[in-house]
Write a structure and sequence with these properties.
Layout (H helix, E strand, L loop, with lengths): L1 H20 L36 H8 L1 H9 L1 H15 L3 H13 L1 H13 L14 H27 L2
Length: 164
C-alpha cells in the first residue's frame, strides 16, 4: 500500500517537473466572428472542412510535440480548437497541418514564430509539423527512454524518501 502511494506521488512529481520544463505561454484565443446586419454569428469553432480532413487525436499531439499541447488539448479543448481553426482560416491549410503547427506553437511559441519569420524570408525551408516524430523506431526508442527514466526516478524516490 505504501509503495503504491509512493509510486503515485512519484508519477505526479514527474509530471509536474515535465510541465515546469515546458511552458505554454503567450498564446491567445481568437475572438468569435461577429455578425453583420442580422446574419447569424459564426464562432471560430464552426468551420467547414472536408470529412477526410479530420486531423489526429490528442495522443497524436503527445507523440508529435510532447505533453504541453496534449494537456492543452485535453483540459482546454475550446482554446485548442479555436487556435487550430484560426490558423486554418489564416493560412488556408488542411486541419492536419494546422494541428501540427499549433502543437509546435504550444510547445515552443518563440521558436515557432521565429521559424515562421525565417520561412517567410526564404532563409529556411518550411517544415511539416504534422509528420514530425512519427517514425516507429523513434517512438520505440522514446518509450524505452521514458520507462528507464521513470524507473530511475521511482528508485531514487524509494531510496531517498521511503528509507529515511
Amino acid at each position: 500500500m505504501l509503495l503504491a502511494t509512493a509510486v503515485k506521488r512519484m508519477f505526479v512529481l514527474c509530471m509536474l517537473a515535465l510541465l515546469a520544463t515546458q511552458q505554454a505561454t503567450s498564446f491567445r484565443v481568437c475572438a468569435p466572428i461577429r455578425s453583420v446586419r442580422g446574419t447569424r454569428a459564426l464562432s471560430s469553432l464552426e468551420m467547414k472542412y472536408k470529412p477526410e480532413d479530420e486531423g489526429y487525436d490528442a495522443f497524436g499531439s503527445l507523440v508529435r510535440q510532447g505533453p504541453v499541447p496534449f494537456f492543452i488539448r485535453t483540459f482546454k479543448p475550446e482554446t485548442y480548437e479555436a487556435a487550430v481553426d484560426k490558423y486554418m482560416k489564416l493560412e488556408g491549410c488542411s486541419r492536419n497541418e494546422a494541428q501540427g503547427n499549433m502543437d509546435f506553437y504550444f510547445s515552443d511559441p518563440n521558436g515557432w514564430a521565429g521559424r515562421k519569420l525565417r520561412v517567410k524570408r526564404g532563409e529556411v525551408p518550411d517544415l511539416d509539423y504534422s509528420k514530425m516524430n512519427t517514425s516507429p523506431v523513434g517512438l520505440i526508442l522514446t518509450a524505452i527512454w521514458a520507462v528507464g527514466i521513470i524507473g530511475l526516478f521511482v528508485r531514487i524516490f524509494q531510496v531517498q524518501v521511503l528509507h529515511q
